[in-house]
Design brief:
Helix content is about 40%, strand content about 25%. The protein has a 7-stranded antiparallel beta sheet, sandwiched between helices. Strands 2-5-10-7-8 form a 5-stranded antiparallel beta sheet. The chain starts with a strand and ends in a 9-residue tail after the last helix. Keywords: DNA-binding, Transcription, Transcription regulation. This is Helix-turn-helix domain-containing protein. Pfam families: HTH_18. It comes from Pseudonocardia alaniniphila.
Length: about 325
Amino acid sequence: MQIYEYSGEEYEHIAGEFSIPLIARTGPDFRGRSAVQKLGGALTLYRSHFRGPISAVRTNRMAARASADNGMLFCLQEMVCHGYMRQRGRSAELVAGTGILIEARSPSERTSQSEARLLTLHFSRELLPLRTTEITDACARSADSAAPATRMLSGYLGRLLDLADDLTASQRLDAGRAAIELLTMVLRNVAPSVPGGDGPEDVLLDMMRTHVREHLADPELRVEELARRHHVSVRHAYRLFTRVGTTPAAYLREQRLLAAQAMLSDPRHARLRLSHIAAAVGFLDIRTFERAFRRQYGMTPCGWRREHCPSRAAPRT
C-alpha cells in the first residue's frame, strides 16, 4: 500500500497518477491524504480524505482523450459535508453511505464543500459484465446506502484495503474480481428509477425506453413513430420522459451514439465502414452521424476509433 499526502496544488498530479486526470480547484487550506492499494488486472482500491473544499472537473477534451482501458470509478461516500457529482446531465448528491459510478469517457464534476472521506474502486469498464447502456445509465446515480448489496460492497472494500498487504498477488487479484461481482449486484439496482413508483405511466415509460434500445437500427424510429407504436400522443411522450430528466428525442440520440461509440471501440468492428456503423444505429446520413457524434463526444468517429480501438486494422472509412 502506498500513502500520499498532498496540498491542493499537488492533487492534480496525484489524481492523474493513480486515478484519472482532472482539473482541481481547492481552497488555500486544502489538505488530502490517500491510501492506495493496487490489486492487479486494471484494479486499484484507495481511500481518500479531503479536508477543505474541492472541485474536481474532467473536461470534454480530457474525456475525449480517455485511454483505451475505459477507466471507471465507483466511489463510496464514507463521510461528506455537502457535495454533489455531475455527469451526463445528471446531478447526484453526495450522502454518507451511498455509492456513485463515474466513467472517464464523459466530462464530470465532483464538489465537496468542507470535508469528505471516500473509498474508491478504479477499474476497466470491460470488467463489468453489463451492457454499455446499463453502465452508462448507472453513472452519476446514487446507490442506496440501505440496500444490502451496497452495504456488502462497502464492508468488503474496507476490509480488503486493510488486509490486501497480507495477500499474495494472485489473492489480491481474486479479491478484486470478487469486488467487481459485488459491484455488479449494486449497479443492477441503480438502473434509472421513475419517481412515483410502478404505476401504469411508469411501466409505459420503461416499455418505451426498452423499445428504443432494442430498435436503434430502425431509421424510421423517431419521436412521432415511438409515440404511435405505444398509442400515445407526441406531447404525452415528452411528458413521460420528463420523469427521467430528458426528452424522447434526446434519449433516442444518446442511445444511438452510445451504441456507435461502443462499436467504434470494439476491435471486432475495426474494419467496418463508418457508414455501416452509422446505419447500424439508425443514421442514414453519414454527415449527420459525424456531426452528432462530434457534438456529443468532442471528436469525430474516426478520431474516436483511432484513440479507443487499439486492435484497429486499417478500417475503411
